[in-house]
Amino acid sequence: MTDSAIIPVSMTRFDADFQGFSDDLGASFARYGFAVVADHGLDEAVIGAALDDAKAFFALPDAVKRAYHQPGTGGARGYTPFGIEAAKDAKAVDLKEFWHAGRELPEEHPYRKYMRDNVWPSEVPTFHNHVYGMFQALDALGAKLLQAIARYLKLPDDFFADKVALGNSVLRLLHYPPVPADAPGVRAGAHEDINVITLLLGAEEAGLQLLDRDGQWLSIAPPPGALVVNIGDMLQRLTNHVLPSTTHRVVNPAPERRGFSRYSTPFFLHFEPEYEIRTLDSCVSADNPDRYPEGITAEDYLLQRLREIRLL
User: Is the pLDDT of residue 261 over 90?
Assistant: First the structure.
């Protein structure tokens, strides 16, 4: 295991040097499946308020939290208790609990058949405003990053705009409790993300690692004011692996940190449910033949993958 050599790309270049920003961001994704975006510009007060509310919720008694669990829904909204989710093909469950908040839609919107209503814990009165505020901020930032990815792929800058505007995206508030020395699993087993891109703000505790192409695990610890962004399987499929979805994990802490919880807040940006993921012609060549001749809707792909990780 080695420290990551990923060079941060500053968001300040988005306006000052969009082409250069896109080139460097895309090159990092092509090489690692991950990028570190510095100077993200998100309001630290919004982030801090949402994180404080998440910590307050996870500190509630187990019976109170479980009242917000909705079995059989894929964990799409509300609370998922400790010990349910597992990495695909893993024998042990992950050592975590989490909360999901998703997009809020107008009453009559046709996508409501795909997206459940959010639930909000009455025990933390500010939870809705703070957490949904964070959802909206990350949704907007994700849309900007997709403009740069489109430029890197030599697509129109707005290529992704109408495909994610009402995407089935979710903000996950994650709590990894203290880890006993004899823990049977790890905080998050080796996996790839299902979605388009994931935006992950820096966690207070270390542990995130990606599997490099040479089989080495690289530790990733974004500096303050930065976030980690990684490619998900949907975008890997769309780009025929030009942008790879890289295996990553969250390992258990060193003995001196076992008694500390770890919190993180990944934002899983998704396509709209009815968007058909079909390989981009520009990502097919003699050297890179089409791996996915059949298209699949984002909704069908999501359901298929949720079954694999035991959430459905």
Answer: no
Place of tokens 């699993």: 185
Phi, psi at 174, each rounded to 5°: -110, 135
Please give the Cα distance from 116 to 228 (Å, whole number).
28
Q: How far apart are CA 77 and CA 245, in angstroms?
A: 24
Rg (alpha carbons) of the chain, rounded to whole number:
19
User: In which region does residue 62 sit, left (phi positive, over 0), alpha (psi from -120 to 50) or beta (all else)?
Assistant: alpha
Q: Is the pTM of this model over 0.85?
A: yes
Q: Where are the alpha helices (DSSP H) in 124-258?
A: 127-152, 161-164, 233-238
Contacting residues for 66 by C-beta, under 8 A, at least 6 apart: 79, 81
Mind listing the pLDDT tens digit for each residue in 223-246? 888 999 999 999 999 999 999 999
Which amino acid makes up residue 209?
A: Q
